[in-house]
Amino acid sequence: MKRKNFITLAWISFGTSMFFFFAFTSEKTVDNFLLTVLISFMYSFVLGVGNGLINDILNKKFPWSEATTKRAIISIVTILVANVVLVYFCNYMNFVVFQKAATTEEYFSGKYNFINWFTINIALLISAFLHAKGFMEELKKSSKKEVVEQKLIAKSANAQFESLKNQLDPHFLFNSLNVLSSLIDENPVQAQKFTASMSKIYRYVLEQKDKELVTIEDEIEFAKTYCGLLKTRFEDSVNFVFEIKEEDLRKFVVPLSLQLLLENCIKHNLATSSKPLLIRIFTEGDNLCIENNLQIREQIKESAGIGLANIVQRYSLLTKKNVFIEKSEDYFKVKLPILSQKPIAEKIDTNTQDKAYERAKKRVKEIKGFYGNLISYCTVIPFLIFVNLYTQNHYHWFWWPLLGWGLGVASHAFQVFGIGLSWQEKKIREIMDKQKK
């Protein structure tokens, strides 16, 4: 418990002791005052600290946000057992040890059963208040934490995705200008054609770079145009083969993935007329494959691996499917996962969000209603018992509201934490799933 809670308990104890001393103590002596203060502090700290520690332990072991039903059941059982033990201990110390009003045998013979029972109800009231307060605090914390986490995840994912997409422009432009620079010296006419084709390709880059996924058909058309530029420069030194199944054309891949992989093929391999580089683009199962014969080029500067790393990271943000890389002595192959549809997690439907919020709001209202009912029960019933016994000892009518209302509270708890709407919804889903099969 926090220091603030101990200070609060101290003030409550002092105020209670003052009330009992001046209202119920016949002999106003210093010894009686100190005894009243001692007894008041004992009850306040044993019951308050005991219930507070139980609540703190249960919060750590069984948080409300993670196991609401389990926590509710454990809380009810624990506070009942714990408060019975704590009350019997406090009353024993009060009547047997401090006041010496009874012996141990008399205390456990049943003479103080009513006082014990009455005090247990007061203790349950305190415990119910602490647990209800703990539930509301935990609910607020978990709600705020979830909102903050979702915002951070969304911002982080968006920032990372934007960063990855922004790599495409400079990367593509740098490689294209290198090709154009070499063509200007070698073949000015082809350089002009290359410039026209490059503008067409760059338009595609600008159109697609803001998209998360594109169809294989669009990507293949773009790749063929890009391969035409490479063919212009390398002529017979590079050959391209496209083998795409018709049924895969309407499926999706990460945009500009083929362009980056084609660049890698040219960058890392030798291509001559005597030893041409063969690049195959084909579908294999649920993958779009880019394969080339391995003719490794010696490089002075080690590659940064921007292109392949970019593709792998963008796929990781969109799907759990992995990009596979195969390398042998003869070939190098990259397998890009084909997605049959755009990921549902891309955008959360606003209606779904609203419905989930309304369900959560209704659930919280149900739980708050139960704890309000429980606190009212623990407050009103002891008062009715006191009124009944104070005004009419021979007829104990308090049993009727105690049992009737108690059954109502038990039924309410069973409905909220047992077979409420969540149970009904679960059964409805099970029946619907069976009908689908």
Write structural notes for this entry.
By secondary structure, the protein is an alpha+beta fold. The chain contains 13 helices and 7 strands. It folds into 3 domains: 1-139, no CATH class; 167-346, Histidine kinase-like ATPase, C-terminal domain (Heat Shock Protein 90, 2-Layer Sandwich); 361-437, no CATH class. The strands form 2 sheets. The chain has a 5-stranded mixed β-sheet, with helices on one face. A two-stranded antiparallel ribbon has the order 1-3. Helix 1 runs antiparallel to helix 2 (30-61), helix 2 (30-61) runs antiparallel to helix 3 (68-98) and helix 8 runs parallel beside helix 9 (257-268). The model is unreliable at 344-350 (pLDDT under 50). Keywords: Membrane, Transmembrane, Transmembrane helix. Pfam families: 2TM (PF13239), His_kinase (PF06580). This is 2TM domain-containing protein.
Second rung of CATH, namely the architecture of the largest domain: 2-Layer Sandwich
Strand content: 5-15%
Terminal CA distance reads 53 Å
Domain count: 3
**Percent helix range:** over 70%
Mean pLDDT: 76
CATH class category of the largest domain: Alpha Beta
Topology:
Elements: H1 3-24, H2 30-61, H3 68-98, H4 104-111, H5 113-166, H6 168-186, H7 188-208, E1 214-215, H8 216-234, E2 238-243, E3 252-253, H9 257-268, E4 277-284, E5 287-293, H10 306-318, E6 324-327, E7 331-337, H11 350-391, H12 399-417, H13 421-436
Parallel strand pairs: 2-4
Antiparallel strand pairs: 1-3, 4-5, 5-7, 6-7
Helix pairs in contact: 1-2, 2-3, 2-5, 3-5, 5-10, 5-11, 6-7, 7-8, 8-9, 11-12
Keywords: Membrane, Transmembrane, Transmembrane helix
Organism: Chryseobacterium terrae
Transmembrane segments: 7-26, 32-53, 73-94, 114-132, 370-391, 397-423
